[in-house]
Specification:
single chain; alpha+beta; five-stranded antiparallel sheet; four-stranded antiparallel sheet
């Protein structure tokens, strides 16, 4: 077939030619390459249609959802909103303070009146409760707290703070300070700080990523393709999240995580395909018949299959997080899954179409060193031979390092974030610290107790006698006349202090049967309990499903089991490093943060799913390449070296991209995105270097043919999947 014939085929809208060999993905790729205009038009419709909603993604998505559905604390919040004028954990608390004047003085009263008018003018606020002596006025009389009762969901109350905090802080005078605080204000300020940090990190990571891609590909055109396609997938997913938010609230964190994770993963997928396409295209040119569509078919039949299975692995790992009954955690997983689906779709449809159209132009604007860059890397082939010759020293060395880094995990502590995750100049933190200074350590985290009116006196007496409770406010009757009372129990420790959990447990155990305990700190503790309870379930589901998918993909139980186990080992090592950094504070001054003494509570569940997904991603890339050569040669040792030679550079470059993207978040000021970036970056670094480029190849060397053996009954049950093309 001549190059003229190829151009004619590419411009047609026919299906793949009958002489295209390979499986369904090969034929699918050839169709994409042969229908460039239709594929690009379809994607333009998707990008423009969904992209119209994308700019509003951060303003539209939900700001709260950090709760354990069905918990006692959520019941308290719902009762407080229904019967007590919205005086729940979601209420807006506005701190008014003066160093020189009393709350009762006219100047302070004028500010309180202005704040009251601002709150009362918003339909999301129900009752506005003025500062009450002995309850919400400090002992020295210079600090008062105005309660704006919640008349909406937790997400609506966070948005209310977003809208009102400028006006509220604007009510301050030269001698009087005004700060919105409380749980809704905390999430408002934290979400803003987190969003700013994510955008800053993305701005830093894109140029670094492009530089790595240029070095990896040696061509500006080839390097730019993954970035453009990933961007298309992200724009589409952002718009889809906005539309999905109209059906069910989606946490703004869903987009934050999706931006980072999908960027890294999308570049990985495109990198794998583009590298393989360049090699397949070179083979057709060397044969004297440049055929871009045939090169796309071979690419999709080999690397495309690995990418599809990798994407499925990622989706399966993240789907396990949906078991956790916490809206914010679930929707973060949904956000990433949606972004991965769009990025994967772009990689498997738009990228083959573009590659088929570009043909040899994929190497345009090549750097001098890359004029004849080969897919098979001599350096990684040499490294594969070294591992083949000396397997035991490398196996023992890698295992010792990974086990040593994993051991700290057994001392890992987790808790929900403290106020320290919010920047010091954030209004909520300034109000929080004022309340603590004027009313006591536990005042910003009052526990709310709702009881039947008949048990009011008994509840108050028992609550006041519990160790860890410094004060209990008098029972307040329900505003709607129902048979309930509310009491506020002020702990004697900071809301983030681990001792508060024991106080909460004691209250729930000793109070009368009809009394239930909630409040913002109780919601955090209930959520942490749910996360801890579901962690073993999520981990088990991920491990089982990950093993089954590898088994289906590789058709070999031993290597599927080994691939799952070593992925678990690198995940454990990443959490061990997280314990040393974020709990013990090693390197904290260098990274610019003050350790909380624990890892943020949602980290183990969520990061485990993300890290394991990435680890399995690289496992599929390496083992699919080795299996391709094993299917062609039936030589386990030669296929191990050739698999390393063909996939080693791609894995190394992909890991470099991921590490650059993730570590850019180490520059973030808020602690959670810093945790996320460093933990994921360390995980990828350890996984790529010690697992994929050392331990797993060594295990292939030591197991030989056994790695790829499968009993006849299992082969009969499993679907037939191969990675060789032809």
């Amino acid at each position: 077939m001549s190059s003229t014939d190829v151009r004619t085929d590419e411009s047609s809208a026919d299906s793949s030619p009958p002489d295209i060999t390979g499986g369904p993905l090969a034929r699918f790729g050839a169709r994409m390459a042969g229908n460039f205009k239709w594929v690009v038009t379809a994607w333009l419709v998707v990008i423009i249609g969904l992209g119209a909603f994308a700019p509003s993604v951060f303003g539209s998505l939900a700001g709260a959802g950090w709760q354990a559905n069905g918990s006692e604390s959520v019941q308290v919040r719902e009762l407080a909103q229904e019967h007590f004028g919205g005086n729940s954990s979601a209420a807006i608390q506005v701190v008014v303070h003066s160093d020189t004047e009393q709350v009762s003085d006219p100047a302070v009263q004028a500010v309180i009146s202005e704040v009251t008018d601002i709150l009362a003018g918003d339909p999301r606020i129900s009752e506005v409760i003025a500062p009450q002596p002995g309850m919400s006025i400090s002992p020295d009389g210079r600090t008062g707290i105005i309660i704006g009762g919640a008349n909406g969901t937790t997400d609506e109350m966070v948005k209310a703070v977003d809208d009102l905090k400028g006006e509220l802080t604007g009510a301050s005078t030269d001698s009087i300070e005004v700060y919105p605080t409380g749980a809704s204000a905390l999430w408002s300020d934290f979400n803003k700080a987190n969003h700013d940090a994510m955008i800053k990190a993305e701005i830093i990571s894109w140029p670094v990523t492009l530089a790595i891609m240029v070095l990896a590909f040696g061509s500006l055109v080839a390097a730019g393709l993954p970035l453009l396609l990933t961007l298309a997938g992200l724009v589409a997913s952002a718009g889809a999240l906005v539309l999905l938010n109209e059906v069910t609230p989606i946490s703004v964190w869903a987009m934050n995580f999706a931006l980072m994770f999908a960027l890294a993963l999308g570049i990985d997928y495109a990198l794998f395909l583009v590298v393989r396409f360049r090699e397949a295209l070179r083979k057709t040119i060397d044969a004297g018949q440049m055929d871009a569509r045939r090169a796309v078919a071979e690419t999709m039949d080999t690397a495309g299959k690995a990418v599809a299975l990798s994407g499925l692995t990622v989706l399966i790992s993240l789907s396990a997080v949906l078991l956790v009954p916490a809206p914010a955690v679930r929707t973060m997983a949904v956000g990433i899954m949606l972004a991965v689906i769009f990025v994967l779709a772009a990689t498997l449809t738009l990228l083959p179409a573009v590659l088929g159209k570009l043909g040899p132009k994929v190497n345009a604007a090549s750097l001098p060193f890359a004029k004849r860059q080969e897919h098979r890397s001599p350096k990684f082939a040499s490294w594969g031979r070294v591992l083949h010759k000396y397997p035991w020293p490398f196996a023992i060395g890698a295992l010792l390092i990974l086990v040593a880094l994993t051991l700290p995990v057994f001392g890992l502590k987790v808790a929900m974030p403290s106020i320290s995750v919010v920047p010091e100049d954030a209004p909520v933190r300034q109000g929080y610290e004022l309340v603590q200074a004027q009313m006591g350590e536990g005042a910003p985290g009052m526990l709310q107790i709702i009881a039947p009116a008949s048990e009011a006196e008994q509840t108050a007496q028992i609550a006041a006698s519990v160790d860890g409770v410094s004060m209990v406010t008098p029972p307040m009757p329900a505003m709607d006349g129902s048979d309930y009372v509310m009491l506020q129990a002020i702990p004697d420790v900071d809301p983030s202090d681990p001792a508060l959990a024991a106080t909460l447990d004691t209250l729930r155990a000793e109070l009368p049967e009809g009394a239930i305990v909630g409040g913002a700190p109780a919601e955090n503790l209930d959520l942490q309990t749910a996360l801890n309870d579901y962690l073993p379930i999520v981990v088990s589901v991920i491990l089982v499903l990950g093993f089954l998918l590898l088994l289906i993909a590789l058709q070999a139980p031993l290597i599927a089991l080994l691939g799952t186990v070593v992925s678990l080992l690198s995940t454990g090592a990443a959490f061990g490093v997280a314990k040393l950094i974020f709990q013990d504070g090693h390197g904290a001054s260098l990274l610019g943060f003050t350790p909380q003494g624990f890892l943020n509570g949602w980290g183990p569940v969520f990061f485990f799913a993300m890290i394991f997904a990435i680890a399995m991603d690289y496992t599929v890339f390496l083992l699919s390449s080795v299996k391709e050569h094993y299917e062609n040669t039936d030589d386990p040792h030669g296929s191990q070296v050739d698999g390393m030679a063909h996939s080693g550079r791609v894995i190394f470059a992909a890991a470099a991209v991921m590490v650059a993207v993730f570590f850019s978040f180490a520059l973030a000021q808020p602690l959670p995105p810093k945790e996320m970036g460093i933990i994921l970056g360390v995980a990828v670094l350890l996984d790529a270097i010690l697992i994929r480029l050392v331990l797993l190849p060594v295990l292939l060397r030591l197991t030989g043919h056994a790695a790829w053996w499968s009993p006849a009954w299992l082969r009969a049950v499993l679907p037939k999947i191969g990675f060789s093309h032809g």
